[in-house]
Write a structure and sequence with these properties.
Shape: flat
CATH superfamily of one domain: MetI-like
Structural class: mainly alpha
Number of helices: 10
CATH class of one domain: Mainly Alpha
Helix content: over 70%
Mean pLDDT: 85
Number of strands: 0
Order of helices and strands: HHHHHHHHHH
């Protein structure tokens, strides 16, 4: 709450300083005191649902894909490790925007599969992010002591049980901060999907700018929307880190 309050103070101070600098601000465009301002505010805030849904779905799919790609690199034979490299390197190299455009415009031509803007965005962001998450999972699993796995094998745990009860709980504690960073990155990259017409926060801001001709105020408000969203996510990640540390100290 303190950080959120500080954010609003910062935004208010920025607006005040800009007003004192002689800039031609026109906050009436999103003022809750007028009917048109309230309508514009509701229009802009309506993009939260799409942005959050897109980011969460993309990240969940990226986590699943990333783990599926990471495990063969650690426990598979040479061909499986080679497949891991073939997957990770291209998707890390291709810019997210280019991948979004290709999935939406190129995939229907090449593969005959046409997705709407939302699912094309989910697929492109998940593929792009999964390559980075695969490396995070690989590093996290490798950080777990070899003796832990040997002990699990000694008591007869299957591979699935060993990963679920022994390796992954320890690995998740160590990779939670980078996972949180990657989710924040996903929230920011979701703005790129606006180029294919998805009605997210950025697309709605762009549409309002073309009708109201007040880019300064509308894009300033857009910055505040993303800041608030990302600060909430960051606070949630820090809460999870504290909870996991407390559980670890208690031996859970």
């Amino acid at each position: 709450m303190t950080r959120l309050r500080n954010l609003w103070v910062l935004i208010a101070a920025t607006v005040l300083l800009a007003g004192c600098s002689g800039a031609n601000w026109g906050w009436y465009v999103i003022s809750p005191e007028t009917e048109s301002g309230r309508r514009n505010l509701l229009f802009l805030l309506g993009g939260f649902k799409t942005t959050i849904a897109l980011s969460v779905l993309s990240f969940v799919l990226a986590v699943i894909l990333g783990l599926m790609i990471a495990l063969p690199a650690l426990y598979g034979n040479r061909p499986l490790r080679f497949i891991n490299r073939i997957y990770v390197e291209p998707f890390r190299a291709v810019p997210s925007l280019v991948l979004i455009l290709w999935v939406y415009y190129g995939m229907p031509v090449v593969l005959g599969i046409k997705l709407d803007a939302f699912w094309a965005g989910v697929m492109a962001l998940a593929l792009s992010e999964s390559a980075f998450l695969a490396e995070i999972f690989r590093a996290g699993i490798q950080s777990v002591g070899r003796g832990q796995e040997e002990a699990a094998d000694a008591i007869g745990l299957t591979f699935a049980d060993k990963m679920w009860f022994v390796v992954m709980p320890q690995a998740i504690r160590r990779i939670l901060p980078p996972l949180g960073n990657q989710f924040v990155y996903m929230l920011k990259m979701s703005a790129l999907v606006s180029v294919i017409g998805l009605e997210d926060l950025t697309r709605r801001a762009n549409e309002l700018v073309t009708s109201e001709y007040r880019p300064l105020e509308i894009y300033t408000f857009l910055i505040a929307e993303y800041l608030i969203l990302i600060l909430i996510v960051a606070a949630g990640v820090r809460w999870l880190e504290r909870k996991m540390r407390a559980d670890e100290r208690q031996g859970r």
